[in-house]
Amino acid sequence: MIPVALTIAGSDPSGGAGIQADPKTFSALRVYGATVITALTAQNTREVAAIDTLSPSFVAAQIDAVCADLEIRAVKIGMLATAAIAATVADALDRHRLQNVVLDPVMVAGTGRELLAADALDVLRSRLLPLASIVTPNLPEAAALLGEAPAENEMQMRGQAQRLLRLGARAVLVKGGHAGGSDSVDFFADGRVELRLPGPRVDTPNTHGTGCTLAAAIAAGLAKEQPLAEAVAQAKAYVTAAIAAADRLHVGGGAGPLHHFHEYW
Predict the structure, then answer these.
(1) Would you give the DSSP letter of residue 190?
(2) What are the DSSP calls for 116-128, one per residue?
(3) Which one of 42, 158, 233, 249 is at 20 to 30 Å from 52 when CA atoms are compared?
(4) Alpha-carbon distance 227 to 186, whole Å?
(5) Can you tell me the distance from the alpha carbon of 110 to that of 244, in angstroms, rounded to the nearest whole number?
């Protein structure tokens, strides 16, 4: 039986992020993808023009329908938009006893549009963080979760990862893509193991959906019963290769998508 992973996220009609990107990632990594939509966006590679959130009850209905029929081995959570939707997702995780949860705390689009209401941040901290197997914030997101300034070096990234663990996270991957330097360094910690995960910083504007893809790739690894640290390392390698191949696609006039199927075509 093929392993099944579920993504709970917002829709991106341009195909580069969220609900459209996550199943591409699952498929590329040989996992079957199921989807639950939290919000609709009108966006392309240049901007997010509009957002329309779904009702919490319909989000719950989608999760209940999928879990009633499919054996979900891992869950990736992306854009939640509102506190009510975030609480609904937390309730559903408990109700269905879902495991291997990867929480990508999506707050702001790459174009600068806010994707998470301010009051939803408290729900992420108090309800979802303790339920997640791993949380994968970038530097601004880690800072927002902690109420601190963004980390400016690897030592500060390590410190913020440790404080997120104390906040209730079981494991943390602080992503260093927003930092400078020739390498893009991520930092993983789970209270027992710490890993410094460097990758070459690729000179390309086509990085739309990077965070979504990384979290989905980790979920794919967990769905295949990989140990968490191994799933994180393999996801990092996959995303780095997908960014390196992104310029081959020539999609849109702004920040284009990664090449999710770089190994195949």
Answers:
(1) -
(2) B-TTHHHHIIIII
(3) 249
(4) 18
(5) 18
| For residue 81, pLDDT beyond 70 | yes
Strands 134-135 and 101-103: parallel
Whether residue 122 has pLDDT greater than 80:
yes
- What is residue 237's predicted lDDT score, i.e. its pLDDT? 95
pLDDT value at 115 more than 80: no
In the structure encoding, which two tokens stand for residue 192, read together? 């027992």
The answer to whether the beta carbons of residues 9 and 1 sit under 8 Å apart is no
Q: Which residues form the catalytic set?
A: 175, 207, 209-212
Find all residues with CB under 8 Å of 239, minimum gap 6, and list them.
Answer: 199, 210, 213, 214, 217, 258
pLDDT band at 125 (very low <50, low <70, confident <90, very high): very high
The domain 4-248 is classified under which CATH number: 3.50.50.60, 1.10.3720.10, 3.40.1190.20, 3.30.365.10?
Answer: 3.40.1190.20
Domain boundaries, the chain: 4-248
- Mean pLDDT, to the nearest integer, of 86-102? 98
**Distances from the Cα of 6 to the Cα of 13, 55, 69, 222, angstroms:** 19, 19, 12, 12
3-state secondary structure of 184: strand
Amino acid (1-letter code) at residue 11: S
